[in-house]
Design brief:
By secondary structure, the protein is an alpha/beta fold. It has 2 domains: 127 residues, Aspartate Aminotransferase, domain 1 (Alpha-Beta Complex); 236 residues, Aspartate Aminotransferase, domain 2 (3-Layer(aba) Sandwich), CATH 3.40.640. It has 10 helices and 14 strands. The longest helix is centred in the last third of the chain and has 22 residues. It is globular and about 60 Å long. The structure holds pyridoxal-5'-phosphate. The site of pyridoxal-5'-phosphate (PLP) has 15 residues, from helix 4.
Length: 380
């Protein structure tokens, strides 16, 4: 059997990883500033993570959610403390898309409405909102109809207010990732909060990519000092082990049968999640994300060929004055540095581990300036 070919692959086979580094089967070392779509939050194979996972595996790996699973409570407790959402309730699932589908379903249960407001160029996973994932009409599934979904330009207060009314939910990314790192204004987030409260709509913050300390705060929306009704989490939560969840306001009551899951919150997923929270807290990784992020952003702004640098902490978009595909390829194949792409083809995404060091950041800056310089010489 062959693999279903739906995304492009680099012809590189990583066989080992440690911290911010990957090794391929020929022993070549790569600096990983992408972490497999923003997943690697505490670095590859962190010793505390490996220990926690091994200890859990020796005890029990899986049983269904028909029994009390103590590690779920431990994770919820630690997550509440670190995120500042102690009064919220946690529902476990397995991926970002699943978290967002559940959030929309929950919102609809809560107020009985259908219309959803989302933002142009946003990405919430392969959900019923994914109509805008591509401009290629040949791969837009009719089943994902735009019915009941209204897309509004990000940070456009007037368009948003016009679309508001008898709305079920407004869903917004803490920072748009796939779009190439577009940051919502603090005032815009506050406006959404106010309008949702006024209209009885549910405010859903998709922190799947921007959460878990990546922005320098536990959640990117915390910069705006507003509290959504539901927050979705995944990616960095398990540092590579599939685990996701919803933080749900106490204003939204639970009822048996409302949501359900087979794998969500299994023992191993929770062990991974607990280890990640321990390391973020003990190693002060949010502080590191802010410090190294600011350093990278300031340095990159001075490099010729860079049009704009956007982002917060270690969620950074570098928009070039030209298509970035060749630059990313040169970074991987000539300098052995992984970065990410974006739907905006001129933008490179950096989503490194939150414990990346300054010397590792310097290795990237050196490689990046060399690649840009030679690219600009070639086109001159
Ligand atoms: N939400 C956001 C903001 C994302 O960036 C992604 C994935 O890139 C998802 C949801 C979907 O997550 P998953 O691939 O785990 O379903």
């Amino acid at each position: 059997m062959k693999l279903f070919d739906v995304y492009p692959l680099f012809d590189i086979e990583p066989v080992k990883a440690q911290g911010s580094w990957l090794w391929d089967k020929a022993g070549q070392k790569y600096l990983d500033l992408y972490g497999g779509h923003a997943v690697i939050s505490i670095g590859h194979s962190h010793p505390h993570y490996v220990k926690k996972m091994e200890e859990q595996l020796e005890k029990i790996a899986f049983y269904s959610n028909s029994v009390k699973i103590k590690v779920q409570e431990e994770l919820a407790e630690k997550l509440g403390e670190l995120s500042g959402y102690q009064t919220y309730n946690l529902f476990f699932c397995n991926s970002g898309a699943e978290a967002n589908e559940n959030a929309l379903k929950l919102a609809s249960f809560h107020n009985g409405r259908k219309k959803i407001i989302a933002f142009e160029k946003s990405f919430h996973g392969r959900t019923s909102l994914a109509v805008a994932a591509t401009n290629d009409k040949s791969i837009q599934a009719p089943v994902n109809s735009e019915h009941n979904i209204v897309f509004v330009p990000l940070n456009d207060a007037d368009a948003f207010k016009k679309a508001m009314g008898e709305v079920c939910a407004v869903i917004i990314e803490g920072i748009q990732g796939v779009a190439g790192i577009q940051v919502p204004n603090n005032d815009f987030l506050k406006l959404i909060r106010e309008e949702c409260t006024k209209n009885g709509a549910v405010m859903i913050l998709d922190e799947v990519q921007s959460g878990y300390g990546r922005s320098g705060k536990f959640f990117a929306h915390s910069f705006a000092d507003c509290r959504p009704d539901i927050i979705t989490i995944a990616k960095g939560m398990g540092n590579g082990f599939p685990v996701a969840g919803l933080l749900i306001s106490p204003e939204i009551p639970s009822k048996h049968g409302m949501l359900g899951t087979t794998f969500g919150g299994n023992y191993l997923a929770c062990a991974a999640g607990i280890a990640v929270l321990d390391v973020i807290k003990d190693e002060k990784l949010m502080h590191n994300a802010t410090a190294i992020g600011n350093y990278l952003i300031e340095k990159m702004k001075t490099i010729k060929g860079v049009k704009e640098v956007r982002g917060k902490g270690l969620m950074i978009g570098i928009e070039l004055e030209f298509n970035a595909t060749q630059v990313r390829g040169d970074l991987v194949f000539k300098h052995h540095i992984f970065t990410g792409s974006a739907s905006n083809k001129n933008t490179i995404r950096l989503l490194p581990p939150l414990n990346i060091s300054k010397s590792e950041a310097d290795i990237f800056l050196e490689g990046f300036s060399t690649v840009l310089k030679s690219h600009l010489q070639t086109v001159a």
